[in-house]
């Protein structure tokens, strides 16, 4: 609907504003969080409805429940992620500084300064170890990819045989 179809500018602009507000309300940022559930009954224990210190103004901050599909995908990805982490640790065993950087990252340290402080490693060594870790991670990615997509018959390393040969 444009200004040609709706000669009344007020109705046209209201329609545009309604459309914009609708898009904002349904955007990803506004659908990531859901209201906190209310207690099942007034006599329910405090833990069932949330903390007694619960602030109604912040109830919307409760994360939305994941969809069944996202839960299933996460369950399917978990063994692959565990395998990748195991391979990465195997790749890093010969480099003590890289292992320390990896441990710090797994403990939540993100910046080189945080890693340096957590593990007592100079920032220069953290940068160098991060570069080595990235190269090791790429080798793990390639290995996982080759495990996920093995060569197919007729591809490299396989001889193609016709039925009846």
Can you put this structure into words, describing what you see?
With 165 residues, the protein is mainly alpha-helical. Helix content is 58%, strand content 0%. Helix 5 crosses helix 7. The longest helix is centred in the C-terminal third of the chain and has 26 residues. The chain is elongated, with a radius of gyration of 27 Å. The N and C termini lie far apart (67 Å).
Descriptors:
elongated, 165 residues, 0% strand, single chain, mainly alpha
Task: Compute the separation of the termini in Å.
Answer: 67 Å
Give the helices and strands as they follow along the chain: HHHHHHH
Looking at the structure, what is the overall shape?
elongated
State the helicity in percent bands: 55-70%
Helix/sheet category:
mainly alpha
Strand percent estimate: under 5%
**Count, helices:** 7
Low-confidence stretches: none
| Number of extended strands | 0
Rg, please? 27 Å
What summary fits the major beta sheet? Answer: none
Average pLDDT for all residues: 77
Summarize the structure.
The protein is an all-alpha fold. It has helices at residues 9-25, 28-31, 46-49, 68-92, 96-106, 112-119, 123-148.
SSE inventory with pairings:
Elements: H1 9-25, H2 28-31, H3 46-49, H4 68-92, H5 96-106, H6 112-119, H7 123-148
